[in-house]
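Bench log, entry 3. Co-assembly request; chain sequences pasted below exactly as received.
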Amino acid sequence: KAGVTQTPRYLIKTRGQQVTLSCSPISGHRSVSWYQQTPGQGLQFLFEYFSETQRNKGNFPGRFSGRQFSNSRSEMNVSTLELGDSALYLCASSPGTQTGGYTFGSGTRLTVV
Amino acid sequence: KNEVEQSPQNLTAQEGEFITINCSYSVGISALHWLQQHPGGGIVSLFMLSSGKKKHGRLIATINIQEKHSSLHITASHPRDSAVYICAVSTRGYGGSQGNLIFGKGTKLSVKP
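Structure output for the full assembly:
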C-alpha cells in the first residue's frame, strides 16, 4: 500500500515568489491536512480538506492557501514568499472518520532566500 | 500557556532503561496522538487514544481523560528509539473532518548504548 507522497522534497525559492506543494494521500483516504514545522514554532496546523472542501483552517495569513482535487490529491500554495516561510511542510492523510489516525508524508523542505 | 504541554523537553537515557514522557492538555479533544519524528523530518504515528491504554511492542500509551493527561512509556529502551516524540490532540471535528491537530513542543530522546 503506497504511503503519502509529497513533492518536491526540497525547494529553494526567492522572497516574493510563490510556491506550490503537492500531496498525494493514501488511496481511499479523503481527508488531507497540512502542517508547517519550524524550529521556533514547532508544528502548526495550516488547513484540512475533506471531499474537496476546506473544513478547518489554522491561524495563517491569506498568502497560504490550498485545494483538494476529486482524487483527494491536495496542493498548497504560498504566495509572496517571506524568509519566515522557510520550514518543513508536512501533509497527512486520514480516512476522514473520527476513529481513523493520520499517516504523514516525508515533507517538503522549503528554503526562502 | 500552550494548549498542549510536554515534559521533559530533553531526555537522555542508557540503553535498557524505562522511559516516560508526559503530556498535558487544556482543550476538549476527540483523540490524543503520540508521534515519532526522526532526524530528516519524517513523522510516524505511534498511537491514537481516546481512552485507556494501548500497547505496541515496547511502547505503551495511556490517557486519563478526567485529568487531561497522557503518558508514553518505552520499556527496555534502545539507541534506535532516539527520536523526537510529539504529543498532539485532535479537537472535535464534524462530518468527515478530523478537526485541528494541536501539537506539543516535543521531547527529544537520546538513548546511549
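The two ends of chain B are 36 Å apart (CA to CA). Chain B has no helices and eleven strands.
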